Amino acid sequence: MNEDRATRYHRLKRRAGIVSVVLSTLGLGGLVAVGWSSALRDAAETAAGRLAPHGLFAAATVFFYVVLLSAIKETIGGPLAFYSEFLLERRYGLSTEPFPAWLRDRAKAAAIGLALGSAGAELIYWLMGSSPEWWWLTGGAIFTVIFVGLTNLAPVVVLPLFYSVKPLDKDALRARLLALADRAGARVLGAYEWGLGEKTKKANAALAGLGATRRILVSDTMLAEYSDDEIEVVLAHEIAHHVHGDIWKGILFDSVLVVGGFYLASVVLRSMAAAAGLRGADDVAGLPLLLLAAGAVSLVMVPVAHAMSRAFERSADRFALDLTRNPGAFISAMRRLGAQNLAEEHPSRVVQWLFYSHPPIRDRIAAAQAFKA
User: Is the pLDDT of residue 54 over 90?
Assistant: First the structure.
């Protein structure tokens, strides 16, 4: 009862996230434990036998299995996503998106997830068949290339599916931000207005993409409320991640997690295939076990990932202050962002360790005040 509004909001969001992980774990484990995963495989084989050419039977079986598994996942996780992503955001005055629009976005995200998930599963099970002993290592290397490709394509392919993106029409600000990027040594394609306002009241900015697709994004909600000085120092922080190579470091870290997760999955599948009623380690009915093993590695490494991210963020803050020499604008921007995005003012050390990819706003302001002094 003594919690402030922001603390209640984040506590409920964290609780929903924890419940989602528990439900996913129980759901995947339960499918294997009670034999339903084998039943899904049999249904997928039936569909593949009827609808796919003979030469594509194995690939079609994997595809139909992923479709069925995704449908179950959405059935289990959909209500919780509605609560966390729609109801809570509306309750705390952060969402501006009507329910039909949210539902369309949810459907688009599910379709993209199905396309990527089925392609990933096809690759993994093809590698299992062609290289049973080393599929986990080859798969990790290929997934690294995929991560780079997705990071490169996200601002030009994925982002426009969910948000309006148009060239920034404030000439003075656009020139200022492009000059800032040039001064920092980060080549960018251009500066764009990111239409967050039709979905949320939150503000954000980013330097998205890699190489030829790298572009400055400033949300319309930020453009409406923030001074040019504040926007400049926020973008200086985003530019720092590219100058420091944080994007590549993150891709490398994710790749190590994928390789580790795949390796653990290979061990689990070999040792548990018979007990789980699988035909072998390369039986698609073992996909829930693969996901659980890979997910366990990622889950265990969450505190490490967050600690690394917080270090990147502190370094980027310092870079922004050094580049702009404007701690006053940084402090006011952080205060605005904290209020507008409903940032938690006093998260505990445990909460920061488990859930925070950024330092708390108060710590970032304190660092800027020390810089100013």
Answer: no
Helix (H) or strand (E) run with residue 355 in it: helix 349-355
Model confidence band, residue 3 (pLDDT cutoffs 50, 70, 90)? low
CB 31 within 8 A of CB 40: yes
pLDDT the model gives residue 310: 98
CA distance 290 to 124: 10
Q: Tell me the C-alpha distance between 367 and 202, whole Å.
A: 24
Closest Cα to residue 81, out of 170, 146, 20, 155? Answer: 20
**298, exposed or middle or buried, with CB in 10 Å at 0-12, 13-18, 19+?**
middle
pLDDT of residue 15: 97
Q: Which residues contact 157 (CB under 8 A, 6 or more apart)?
A: none
In percent, how much of the chain has pLDDT > 70?
Answer: 99
Distance CA(92)–CA(12), nearest Å, equals 11
Identify which of 112, 128, 116, 235 has the alpha carbon closest to the alpha carbon of residue 173: 235
Q: Looking at residue 52, what DSSP letter applies?
A: S
